[in-house]
Amino acid sequence: MTFFVTPILLFCQTSTIHASAAAHGIHSQESDQPYQAVVRCAETGHVLGSAHILVQDVPGMHTVSRADGSFELRLSLQGSEQVLQISHLGFHPLSLRFTHISELPAEILLTPKRVNMSPVSVVAHHTVGRPKNGLDITQASFTPIDSGAFLREADNVSGVRRGGFGIDPVVRGNSGSRLNIRVDGLASSAAACPNRMDPPTSHIRLSDIERIEIHHGPHALRFGPSFGGTVDFIRHKPEVSPQFQVQGDVRLALESNTGNRVTDARLHLGNARYDLMLSGGFSATDDYTGGDGLKVPASFESSDFGAELFFRPATGHQLQAGFSQSYVRNADFPALPMDMAMDDTFKLKGGYAWNPQDVPGLRSLRADAYYSYVDHEMNNHNRESFNMRDAVALAETKTWGVQGEAIGMYRSLRWNANASYTNQQIDGTRFVDFKAGPNAGNSMTYNLWQDAIIQNSGLYAGADYFLDAWTISTAIRLDYNTAEARNLAPRFAGTDTSSEHFNLSLSAGISRELSTNTGISLYAGRGVRSPDVTERFINFLAVGRNAFEFAGNPNLKPESTHQLDLVFRTRTNDDALNLQLNGFTALMQNYIAGVRNEELQPMVASAPGVLEFQNRDDVFTAGFEATAEYRLPSVASARLSASYTYAEFTDDGSAVAEIPPFESRLVLTGLFSGRFIPEANIRRVLTQNRFDAGFGEEKTDGFWLADISVRTRVLQNLSLNAGVRNLFDEAYSEHLNRNIRPDINEGTMKLPEPGRRVFVEVSWRF
After folding, report:
1. Residues facing 241 on adjacent strands
2. pLDDT digits (tens, 9 = 90+) for 336-345
3. Helix (H, G, I), strand (E, B) or coil at 256
4. Using CA atoms, how far apart are residues 97 and 339, in angstroms rounded to an integer?
């Protein structure tokens, strides 16, 4: 089951600072007395590390709570009243007046600040740790192999389906490079396939992810140039143990209809000095049948493994290194001209983090480096067209970068600054040997991206200031983006294809607590993105919904979006009822889209023409996400959500491509006999009457969908999850699905989603 949370409840950092009188230069006197306490959240009881504790108007008398919430402070008692101040990001500051230590509590409880900051959805996956008594109802129910498919469970998040693998996410109608895909805040690998068979999300191992943070709009500038949104995949982090421990989990899952088979295993061992996390798995699917009985070729096989090491040489210091490899074979794409023969991904990363013990105002300092390589091959060897021609496309991408970041907190001001550099190299070649027809015996070879390289250097600074019921946030980002092609196609021969852009992005927000349970926020942002490698350099290839070939344009201007987000949240005193509304509107300028160019002739004679990427007119968007959740403690919960995005070109009011229709969802969850957690998920999607015919879109009918499942813990460490998806065997297609090939089904039918399927999943933790 997934839960969606809009924070200002930012996650506690794991600083382990120990302050003493000697560390702060305070000399012991007869009046000095030690004070020890633990800082906790008043609502959950969770300990709060990195809380700031100081005595007002007494220089040097301050400390920070450890990871377990505890702290020590020697108080110099003067016989007069003093004020102890406790603050933590995301919580109301607390002031305690005292004359004697006996007046101070052993537990300090801080109340969370429930003011909404920038619009963020947090999709809970599942946590990895030692088995707990009872059931973990936040664990996701039979998570799919593909990260993109899992993201479609979030509000106002859709996906482009081209086959059974690599669903390409769309957030508020923004897709491709308009989304910033990150892993632990760092850039992810880039797609190697020009048709996006392998979007960046397909290279992320979902079982290694604890949660996914979806930052809507141009407000998450910390993570890089943010235009339509940022999706940050947060990996599992080890829980530091003072003694050596070994723990892990194994998951086995099967699903009918799709033949989905998943095997995952993780192992974690470590102590106070180091942690080693190992993971690996194998997954595969078969062809599936839609609700109308149509057989859809969508099989593939995938395997992966990885390791991550955390080493702590001294208190407050941590070194981190990791690598992962994944292999995909024989993935069918019934909506594309070719299938994916292979897609191999290699990732490497390293980092250093320092949580200083005695540097006032500084919480953490870290540096990271990363590298990824994707090797991709697609061909038509299992297609009828292979009798006429042998077509193979080879492509590869290399992405590497470095980033340094500093985070600090001084009283009610939290600040953040970082610098980053990303280098992306992408190249590919298409080979065609004609076996029959007028060109029989001839061959054709041409490059796909002209051996392109794109570099981006960025500087970021941001701050959040907490003042009683108000929170004020500001952020600024400057990016220097360059691009060039090193192996020019004939069309560009003799021309300068290099470009450089200086992009300024800004964000500001203000939040107000109207009462203890109600808050409202207003965020304004400007995000700028430079054209991606496809928009700049693609060399006459059909990468859209129809047979039109696309041609790159190195002279494109950057896109910019100016967006407003209004967030309102309220809850009852007992937290049984929670309501939330996110409304947004934006104006996108220099919008990049394919425009018919009659002067360009396609490479393939059967193609109807060429669409050249151009800066079209401005685009206006508006929409909302609304949720209402009602919970009975430890018994049941009901969550109702709805979302919608509207987008049009301002010059003629025509629809923008790849905008999902209105959608609502009702999720009912219960707990019976203290062992069984049933869940019903009912989804309603309305007909999409607004579509871009020039992009190859058409009307999509609405549908109802129902899923049911039940989870239970069979033994202390063994849990079982089973259910039925598409309970009523509905025949339906998502609006963003690409059209199925004519040899599978005549006409312009969209790729159908799978029909009814039964799944079972067994998980063992130790």
Report:
1. none
2. 989 999 999 9
3. coil
4. 70
| Cα–Cα distance measured from residue 448 to residue 452, given in angstroms and rounded to the nearest whole number | 10
Q: Is the dihedral of CA 544, 655, 153, 174 positive or negative?
A: positive
pLDDT at 7: 35
**Given its phi and psi angles, is residue 699 left (phi above 0), alpha (psi -120 to 50 degrees) or beta?**
beta
Span 585-605, average pLDDT: 91
Using one digit for the tens of pLDDT, what is the confidence trace for 369-407? 999 999 999 999 999 889 999 999 999 999 999 999 999
pLDDT of 1 strictly over 70:
no
Residue type, 735: H
How many Å apart are CA 63 and CA 53, to the nearest integer?
5
Cα separation, 260 vs 295, whole angstroms: 15
Please give the DSSP secondary-structure letter assigned to residue 511: E
d(CA 737, CA 703): 14
pLDDT digits (tens, 9 = 90+) for 33-88: 889 999 988 766 778 877 888 887 777 777 888 877 889 888 877 777 888 888 87
Nearest to 215 by CA among 462, 411, 46, 412: 462
Residues 6+ apart with CB under 8 A from 189: 200, 203, 345, 347, 372, 373, 374, 397, 399
Helix, strand, coil distribution of the chain in percent, nearest 5: 5, 55, 40
Q: What is the pLDDT of residue 59?
A: 73
Mean pLDDT, the chain, rounded, equals 87
For tokens 């033994």, the residue is: 715
Of the candidates 550, 421, 562, the one whose C-alpha atom is nearest the C-alpha of residue 482 is 421
Show the CA angle centred on residue 515, arms to residues 511 and 519, nearest 5°: 30
How far is it, in rounded angstroms, from Cα 35 to Cα 52?
A: 15
What is the total residue count of the chain? Answer: 766
Residue 189 near residue 205 (C-beta atoms within 8 A): no
Q: Tell me, what's the pLDDT at 74?
A: 85
**Collapsed DSSP state (helix, strand, coil) of residue 458:** strand
Is there a contact between 640 and 664 (Cβ–Cβ < 8 Å)? Answer: yes
The Cα 145–Cα 282 span in angstroms is: 10
Instruction: Give dist(CA 705, CA 437) in Å, integer.
Output: 47
The burial class, CB within 10 Å (0-12 / 13-18 / 19+), for 653 is exposed
Instruction: Pick the more confident residue, 208 or 159.
Output: 159
Q: Highest mean pLDDT range out of 146-150, 186-190, 252-256?
A: 252-256
Give the CA angle between residues 438, 441, 445 to the nearest 5°. Answer: 100
Tokens of 164: 């059974």
Q: Which amino acid would we find at residue 369? A: A
* Spatial distance between the Cα atoms of 585 and 607, rounded to a whole number of angstroms: 37
Contacts of 653 (CB under 8 A, 6+ apart): none
Burial (0-12, 13-18, 19+ Cβ within 10 Å), 568: middle
Backbone angles phi, psi at 182, to 5 degrees: -130, 155
Alpha carbon distance 249, 252 (integer Å): 10
Q: Report d(CA 547, CA 738) in Å as an integer.
A: 12
Amino acid present at 676 = F
Instruction: Report the half-sphere exposure of 698 (CA within 13 A, side-chain side).
Output: 11
**Amino acid making up residue 673:** S
Q: What is the pLDDT of residue 212?
A: 87
124-138 confidence digits (pLDDT tens): 655 444 333 333 334
Q: Report how far residue 511's alpha carbon sits from residue 522's, in angstroms, rounded to the nearest whole number.
A: 6
CA–CA gap between residue 747 and residue 344 (Å, rounded): 34
Distance CA 168, CA 188 (A): 14
Residues 6+ apart with CB under 8 A from 72: 18, 19, 20, 34, 35, 36, 63
Q: pTM to 2 decimals? A: 0.84
Whole-angstrom Cα distance, residue 720 to residue 589? 50
Compute the distance between CA of residue 235 and CA of residue 127 in angstroms, rounded to an integer.
Answer: 10
